[in-house]
Amino acid sequence: MKKLFIVALVFLLGGCMGTSHLQTSLTEQKSALLYVFDSGKIDPKTGDSLSIVRYVVDDILAPDTVVKNKSTFVLPLVFFNMWKQEDQAQLGYSQLENDYKQFMKESFLQELKRSGKFVYQDNQGNIALDISVKKIEMSAPILQRGNFLFLVFFFGYSSQTYAGPVDVAIDADVRVNRGGQVVMTREVHGKFRTSILSGSNVKMKDYSTAMTEGLSMAIKDLNEKIVKEINQI
Amino acid sequence: MKALTLTKGVLVCSVLGATLFIAGCSQPAKYILVTDRNDVNFADGDRFYICLQPEEAQRVRGMLTLRTKSSVKEYYKTRSGGPDALEEILYDIISAHYSAAQGRMDTQGDSLPPYLRLLLKADLARENKRQRTDPGHLVQMYQAAFDDPGCGLNRDLIKLRIRQVRYGR
């Protein structure tokens, strides 16, 4: 009997992973920002030459991943225990295998060369592009819940984790000059929502990857939207 | 009594063995050959589809129906016709002989149509964990395959591959 109580206690404490433990588990994971360019190629380019005079990414990602507890509920009865814990994670750049600022710049340039209608020139183009990425918002919820049923000679246990959807939103200011005149000033938003990971054995690696996936795809969305705006000049 | 226990043990082992054998036989193959006409479940993150154009599909039509590891093994015993580089490479891939497939790709890969060569090169680089197969480099290889789509389903299949690379499937 005493052993079963200990088992119940272990399930109760182990099933509901603490917020700090969750944060530690997440920070051990690393993944790379990546995506495949699937926009339509514009080739050959026509019209003016275009240069990027400035592409700035503010320090918008914290170095470390932070997990905040949203709510915790535990019902520790003798025959029936249940728990529910909801946390919210914010990705830190130390979890990324590649430099996110570099990735944003390089992927934008690649997108510009792929689907932009203007001829890209390293400098002194007729069209000058100034981009400032000022905000990255991420919502990465994780819900863990479970229960333990104890009926003297029998016990049952179940647990479920729901990670995501991870929502990422990126804001950038875009300014385009042509022959010294400002021809476009716009705030462009890139966003992406991942699917939900659910099951009794959701891996922290997959949860962490979902955050990186969300960020990668939001960067892709931002790049495509900026190039689309520029193509309309 | 001892004999009975032994019999029971043998029986349990036999049942367990048979179960494992049946489970092993019906295991789904990782790589599946499809054409544009096939229904592909893009939500299945564990399956790696290889889409073939009609000409290539015709050359390996017997392999298009293979869905399990045992059916892949069975296929090779009953196949007819002379050696075909395409068939040999695809057979090695679907039967998970990745280093053998890599060897054939190195020597005979040029005979494959570009859309297939690019995709299989990327797949084999990932499977064989070759040098410079960091995710970024792999994505570049898949990007090359994406930009030379060949089979109509290829673009969706490659997007699925990127997801599989990302999640380490």
Structure report:
The complex is a heterodimer of chains A (about 230) and B (about 170). Chain A has about 230 residues and is of the alpha+beta class. Helix content of chain A is about 30%, strand content about 40%. Chain A has 4 helices and 9 strands; from the N terminus they run ααβββαββββββα. In chain A, strands 1, 2, 3, 4, 5, 6, 7, 8 and 9 form a 9-stranded mixed beta sheet that branches. In chain A, a hairpin with a 3-residue loop joins β2 (about 65-75) and β3. In chain A, about 30% of the residues are buried. Chain B has about 170 residues and is mainly alpha-helical. Chain B is built from 8 helices and 2 strands. The longest helix of chain B has 24 residues, at about 1-25. Mean pLDDT of chain B is about 80; it is low at about 1-5. The chains are: A alpha+beta (about 230), B mainly alpha (about 170). The interface of A and B includes residues 32 and 35 of A.
Element layout with pairings:
The complex is a heterodimer of chains A (233) and B (169).
Chain A: H1 2-15, H2 19-27, E1 49-57, E2 66-76, E3 80-90, H3 100-115, E4 119-120, E5 127-150, E6 155-163, E7 167-178, E8 181-193, E9 197-199, H4 204-231
Parallel strand pairs in A: 1-4, 1-5
Antiparallel strand pairs in A: 2-3, 3-5, 5-6, 5-7, 6-9, 7-8
Helix pairs in contact in A: 2-4, 3-4
Chain B: H1 2-25, E1 31-34, E2 48-51, H2 54-59, H3 69-78, H4 85-94, H5 98-108, H6 114-127, H7 135-146, H8 154-166
Parallel strand pairs in B: 1-2
Helix pairs in contact in B: 4-5, 5-6, 6-7, 7-8
Please outline what is shown here.
Chain A has helices at 2-15, 19-27, 100-115, 204-231, and strands at 49-57, 66-76, 80-90, 119-120, 127-150, 155-163, 167-178, 181-193, 197-199. Chain A has 233 residues and is α+β, with helices and mostly antiparallel strands.
